[in-house]
Amino acid sequence: MGLSFLPKEYEFFDMFDNLANYCVSASKQIQDSVSSENFTGSEVQKIKNIEHAADKITYEIFEKLNNTFITPIDREDIHSLAHELDNIVDLILKISNMMTIYNVDKVNKKFLEVLKLIDTSIDYITKAVNGLRNLKKGNSIHEYCRQVNNLENLGDQLRNEAIAELFSGGFDAIYIMKWKDIFLNTEKLLDQCEDVAKIIESIIVKQA
Amino acid sequence: MGLSFLPKEYEFFDMFDNLANYCVSASKQIQDSVSSENFTGSEVQKIKNIEHAADKITYEIFEKLNNTFITPIDREDIHSLAHELDNIVDLILKISNMMTIYNVDKVNKKFLEVLKLIDTSIDYITKAVNGLRNLKKGNSIHEYCRQVNNLENLGDQLRNEAIAELFSGGFDAIYIMKWKDIFLNTEKLLDQCEDVAKIIESIIVKQA
Amino acid sequence: MGLSFLPKEYEFFDMFDNLANYCVSASKQIQDSVSSENFTGSEVQKIKNIEHAADKITYEIFEKLNNTFITPIDREDIHSLAHELDNIVDLILKISNMMTIYNVDKVNKKFLEVLKLIDTSIDYITKAVNGLRNLKKGNSIHEYCRQVNNLENLGDQLRNEAIAELFSGGFDAIYIMKWKDIFLNTEKLLDQCEDVAKIIESIIVKQA
Fold it and tell me: Which among A97, A101, A172 is the nearest to C167, CB-wise?
């Protein structure tokens, strides 16, 4: 171990920022992949690469946690936050894989709307994660987390509308089957964002 | 806090009775909504109102738990029982919402049979909850819980028959998709009732 | 309790061997049931009998655990291993029941391939369980567990191929619905095998 001019505890925050940035990249990438309302599976490899990078940094956070005696925030919160941020990237990859396996070609329009909600939610999470190194900004972090919760509620409404539309007649059974499954997983993704927000809020409360 | 002539600990039992009664109301309401073998989503609002009321009393139980030093039954059992009773109402609302979103119009006949099982199960739970304030009646409470378990087993059989019927030919794929999902959730509801019965049985065992 | 010439602690290993053998029997039986590429539900009863026998030995392990003061491996590991091995048999029965209820007649060819993976995975688990009584063979047990993990990964690939095939056109919605559900459960079964392998690996690590 070399000398470090920065207090070592700040490294955790850098690592979390990196991990949150991978969430952002994965979200941008899935949006790009479907932006033309056509889905080309060839783009999935890019998300797979992001997922590998996110796995790597998550593993590094766990390693550092094992080798650090005094941590800037509770050990179990560091573990949960890394794990749950990593799950966001995993779910984005899962949805992309699902679209390939289901041989999706024409993209459901409500799906594009849900992806935008997800992207906004991940942006708020990134801001909240970034704020962790300066908890005097607790109020704005709390506001970011509140926005993530709002977006989860909006997502539930949008999913209900999307599924109601699928079953309103005019769509064939196989199309309904595919998109019902995909919307189930976008719901999980927004729930996952909410879980991350909850962890961040509990960190703020403890440090207050 | 004012004076109370009743020992305060009894209030928990009153609150549990109230919560169990909301389970009964929600069950009666979903039966009414589909009784004509047609489903009209306009009735869902009534179940939504019951669900809000159940949430409120559950929250009040948690509040009271936080402010009470000595509780008549184990703290964690009070918490679990409130939470799991509330989940019964949540699941009834979920099934009602699902029927609206799936644009269900003609009600599957086996569904009406399952709803009757659910209603009977909730009646036994209400009796068991009511019995908690007088644990000398442990034997009859145990019998109510045993009935809830029986009804869960009967529900499994009935669900298997219902799904087998859906796949026996003569139904179109979209109809099958809707009802398979709904029967999956009625199964969860009967499992949920069984979970409540298990909590009640464990309370009796501890106090014996 | 009578006298026993064998050290009593070895009985746990015999019981685990028995339980693992029931996993093997259930796996062989489901393979037989579908080997002709036709599925006849009459064979399900045999799997049901195996499942009852596995339940019985699992219960006996729990009983013995309650009555034994010093155990050859950690108490919680004995409990988990019994419970998770029993779950393997439960899942095989669940898949068989599902095939009956879904009125499956023509067996999907990829399903036969998945069943072979499952059978191989269960064979490795049986060898690993058998090795527990002689932990000097830790290395070979570790190798069996590694193979179980490999098979889980292969299973994921095979399931993706199977689902992609279902959605490639040429299959009707009801057929897709049935087999998608069945492949979801074979995935759970291979995950379950991996969970057992994890427990066994953690036992080896602790005793090393």
Answer: A101
